[in-house]
Amino acid sequence: MQTDNVMIHVRFAPNGTVTEIGERPSGISAQEWFNHLSNTTLNTYEGLSGGRGLFRLSRELLNTAKAPWNNGKGAPS
Known about the structure:
The protein has two helices and four strands. The protein is α+β, with helices and mostly antiparallel strands. A four-stranded antiparallel beta sheet has the order 2-1-4-3. The radius of gyration is 13 Å and the shape is globular.
């Protein structure tokens, strides 16, 4: 069985804040989505040169990470 994998690209500003990130649910900032992925996925982030990074997730793990926003209420504080 083949797993459907997703790569989420991240771009950082010179001060370290996230400016762009893929697969971001509506209603959440790029930095909040990065923080959420960092806190809810284990060993999936790879730092790259030039202010970039990459999350490698299975589609199932991504759907689980997005679940708090799928009901329209947003993630718990």
